[in-house]
Amino acid sequence: MDVVLPNSWATAMQSLTQLRYLALHVKQFELEWISHLHNLQTLQLKSSKRISLRGATLWEMTKLRHVNINYLFVAWEDNDEGSFEECSTSMLENMKSFRTCDICLDKMNARFWWRFPHLEELNLRVRYEPEFPLFPIPEVHTRIHSLSLEFSLVKLFNSAGWERYFVFPSNLRHLYLGGCFLTEEMVLNIARLKKLESLKLFMGFPFGRPESYCWDVTNVEFPALKYLTLHLMRIAEWKASEESFPVLEKLVIRECHYFKEIPTSFADIPTLRLIQLSNCMESLGVSAMNIKRDIEENTGCDSLLVLV
After folding, report:
1. What are the φ and ψ backbone dihedral angles of 265, each rounded to 5 degrees?
2. How many domains does the chain have?
3. What superkingdom does the record give (predicted)?
4. What are the pLDDT digits (tens) for 243-283?
5. Reduced to 3 states, what is the DSSP secondary structure of residue 218?
6. What is the C-alpha separation between 190 and 199, in angstroms, rounded?
7. Are 138 and 189 within one domain?
8. With b meaning 16 or more CB within 10 Å and e meaning fewer, what string describes 210-240?
């Protein structure tokens, strides 16, 4: 059921007890209004006001598999902290994907994800700088293969040492990071993901500094990475070795206006098939064509497609 309804919709919903799929666009919403839908598997909510979600109510909807909420606030009860120690009574074992556009990573909300032990996809837009690790025990979420995190640049990372909050689940295959500056420690956290196939980086600025920076991964290896996208990254210089991206197939660079040159070592990546550039400096396109020429001269094959 996919509907747009006024505020009076809640009363009408009481007679619909067997729904499995529900998508709503309403002015306001309370989870209690649909807590009787015990067979619900997919819930998508859009509201012009912040949606307050009581954890105790959500735990009763045990068949939920996919949740997408555009503006979320989790309201915790006084005894919720203690109930984390009794996880077996409040786990949502069937939850596969969870997405929200607005959440705070404080101590309680970070532990909130412990409730979804079989989670496979997690998408979050984080409002303030984290206060607690998103995955306090990364081993809990061994099934997560796709993670998307976007942060507010205005509020981002005022304090030192924020990178320690980003130890990712080890089985990630797809990672999107928006508004997250790539410090050396952060890059190493990503490189520890030995199964990572796709990495998208968006608007990673050095916090509090207007200048661009050098992204040096010469001694870092991304062993399984096939697809790399850099969008609005303030990178002026990029250093890499042929071991940094040994199986890379596709490189996409968009609107990186300070970026002058792709590392020449990319000509030594045997799997590289596509370099795609959009709204970048002319010198970046020249470096891509030089890589294409070097590959042709070294292998005798026209295997690399360059789109500018």
Report:
1. -65, -15
2. 2
3. Eukaryota
4. 999 999 999 999 998 899 999 999 999 999 999 999 999 99
5. coil
6. 9
7. no
8. eebbebebeebebeebbbbbbbbbbbeebeb
